[in-house]
């Protein structure tokens, strides 16, 4: 995630050719497929959601998972930040929408 720019991904010449995207960091922590990703309005955090019923909050600067939210009972299929940057909403196959 280092070098992330809101208007374009970091790029580096390499095996894929000049200007090809490169992997900057791998965020590992979900036990099943990831279904959504959302950048915080200030670019300091990233939210991910997945088939494992969890939502994870990641520190962009370090790539560390700072919190795991576990309230849904089925796959979490949507995640979005509220414009205030402190709250977010999730939607799940358990037929609930939660405001966190």
Note the overall shape. globular
Q: In which range does the helix fraction lie? A: under 10%
Strand content: 35-45%
What is the radius of gyration computed over CA atoms, rounded to a whole number of angstroms? 15 Å
How would you describe what is shown here?
The chain is an all-beta fold and 100 residues long. Helix content is 0%, strand content 36%. Strands 1-2-3-4 form a four-stranded antiparallel sheet, with no helix packed on it. A three-stranded antiparallel sheet has the order 5-6-7, with no helix packed on it. The N terminus is likely disordered.
List key phrases describing it.
100 residues, mainly beta, four-stranded antiparallel beta sheet, three-stranded antiparallel beta sheet, globular, disordered N terminus
Give the topology, please.
Elements: E1 34-39, E2 45-50, E3 55-59, E4 65-69, E5 76-81, E6 88-92, E7 97-99
In short:
By secondary structure, this protein is mostly beta strands. It has no helices and 7 strands. Strand 6 (88-92) and strand 7 form a beta hairpin.
């Amino acid at each position: 995630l280092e070098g992330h720019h809101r208007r374009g991904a970091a790029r580096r010449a390499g095996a894929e050719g000049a200007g090809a995207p490169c992997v900057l960091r791998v965020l590992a922590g979900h036990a099943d497929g990831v279904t959504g990703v959302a950048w915080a309005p200030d670019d300091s955090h990233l939210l991910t959601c997945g088939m494992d019923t969890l939502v994870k909050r990641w520190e962009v600067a370090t790539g560390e998972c700072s919190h795991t939210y576990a309230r849904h009972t089925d796959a979490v299929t949507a995640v979005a930040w509220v414009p205030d940057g402190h709250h977010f909403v999730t939607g799940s196959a358990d037929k609930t929408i939660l405001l966190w």
